[in-house]
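Thread amino acids onto this structure.
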């Protein structure tokens, strides 16, 4: 559990860094102040793993909003004084992105790469994923054209 908390804090700190760097891209001074209030609120949300995951979801969407140059709900309002609410109902459209962990655990929808891979993505799933940066895999396979 301690390692998971470290990973969640690392992700939050990274997104906090990105948000601080991109803050000047918000043209509206009121939006900048709201974003700073949200960052301060999110920095205090670390009492449990569940709360830290929720905090990171909020942080991610705050960074996306700042990057776009305009705050969208729920960031158009000051952060709540109470614990963070479930983010799904607060986001525009009420839907979050698909959970990649569900894909790996045999969920209904999976990455196309896994579907088209001869081993069902087993090789790729076993590869280490970096905490920062990118993971790239290139495969060249020669097949006998007469067999197709």
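Threaded sequence (148 positions):
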């Amino acid at each position: 559990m301690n390692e998971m908390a470290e990973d969640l804090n690392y992700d939050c700190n990274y997104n906090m860094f990105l948000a601080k760097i991109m803050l000047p891209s918000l043209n509206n001074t009121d939006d900048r102040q709201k974003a700073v209030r949200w960052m301060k609120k999110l920095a205090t949300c670390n009492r449990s793993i569940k709360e830290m995951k929720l905090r990171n979801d909020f942080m991610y969407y705050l960074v996306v909003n700042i990057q776009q140059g305009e705050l969208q709900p729920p960031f158009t309002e000051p952060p709540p004084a109470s614990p963070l609410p479930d983010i799904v109902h607060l986001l525009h459209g009420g839907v979050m992105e698909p959970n990649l962990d569900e894909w790996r655990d045999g969920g209904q929808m999976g990455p196309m790469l896994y579907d088209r891979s001869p081993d069902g993505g087993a090789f790729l799933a076993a590869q280490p994923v970096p905490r920062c940066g990118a993971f790239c895999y290139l495969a060249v396979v020669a097949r006998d054209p007469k067999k197709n």
